């Protein structure tokens, strides 16, 4: 005869540790998305850095042409001059950031929805609860991810220093963490956290609220079930 402990051991991991599984799945999804879109982020940053460097050299009346023009030519220039894999230079801190941020916000939102606020008897989740839950989830996720976000920005700024002929400050991600911690202490890792969480609260208010509201509407008012198709349409 099976005991409750045996039944628990045989149950799927998602049922035994739902929050941990949600964090891992969110982190994996965020990693794939970041790897796919990082070249766009890198070329955008390069274009911004080139403009700032040109202004620093020549002032507001700068007319000197930049090495690259436009997103496509910037990306092609990086591939030709530095190599294809350089399109993913600096992706490590970005992945760290998205694992913590995406996992943290999704786990927080589900906990607020299922435990703190709760659904109504007809399984409906009111809009006002989605709004508050989305904002709180964004705040928690961004606060947890602020150290990795700070390192990501600092590593991206190394490209500007290189264009200006200045020595690089960091040898890598872990060296950046160690140097920021040594110079500013624990509080230094959360520099700029207030505007960051304000932005994250607004972004997630729109993102998670829209997603959850549309998903529940489709499940309750259409023949669609709670599956990958419904989740995709909700986005």
Automatic annotation (TrEMBL):
The family this protein is said to belong to: Belongs to the mitochondrial carrier (TC 2.A.29) family.
Membrane topology: Multi-pass membrane protein
Solcar repeats: 21-115, 125-217
Gene assigned in the entry: SLC25A27
Key words, A-Z: Membrane, Mitochondrion, Mitochondrion inner membrane, Repeat, Transmembrane, Transmembrane helix, Transport
Protein name, UniProt field: Mitochondrial uncoupling protein 4 isoform X3
UniProt subcellular location: Mitochondrion inner membrane
Keyword Translocase among UniProt keywords: no
InterPro entries xrefs: MCP_dom_sf, MCP_transmembrane, Mito_Metabolite_Transporter
One cellular component term from this protein's GO annotations in UniProt: mitochondrial inner membrane
UniProt xrefs under Pfam families: Mito_carr
Coiled coil, from the record: none
The keyword Transcription regulation is assigned to this record: no
Gene3D superfamilies: Mitochondrial carrier domain (1.50.40.10)
């Amino acid at each position: 005869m099976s005991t409750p402990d045996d039944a628990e051991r045989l149950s799927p991991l998602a049922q035994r540790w739902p929050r941990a599984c949600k964090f891992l799945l969110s982190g994996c999804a965020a990693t794939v998305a970041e790897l796919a879109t990082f070249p766009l982020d890198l070329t955008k940053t390069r274009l911004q850095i080139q403009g700032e460097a040109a202004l620093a050299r020549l002032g507001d009346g700068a007319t000197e042409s930049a090495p690259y023009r436009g997103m496509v030519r910037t990306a092609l220039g990086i591939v030709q001059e530095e190599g294809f894999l350089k399109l993913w230079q600096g992706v490590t801190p970005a992945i760290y950031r998205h694992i913590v941020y995406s996992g943290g916000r999704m786990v927080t939102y589900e906990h607020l929805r299922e435990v703190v606020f709760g659904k109504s008897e007809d399984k409906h989740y009111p809009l006002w609860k989605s709004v508050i839950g989305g904002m709180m989830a964004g705040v928690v996720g961004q606060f947890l991810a602020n150290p990795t976000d700070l390192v990501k920005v600092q590593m991206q700024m190394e490209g500007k220093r290189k264009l200006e002929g200045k020595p690089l400050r960091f040898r890598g991600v872990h060296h950046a963490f160690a140097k920021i911690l040594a110079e500013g202490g624990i509080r230094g890792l959360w520099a700029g956290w207030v505007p960051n969480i304000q932005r994250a609260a607004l972004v997630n208010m729109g993102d998670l609220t829209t997603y959850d509201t549309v998903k529940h509407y489709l499940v309750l008012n259409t023949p669609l079930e709670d599956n990958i198709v419904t989740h995709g349409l909700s986005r």
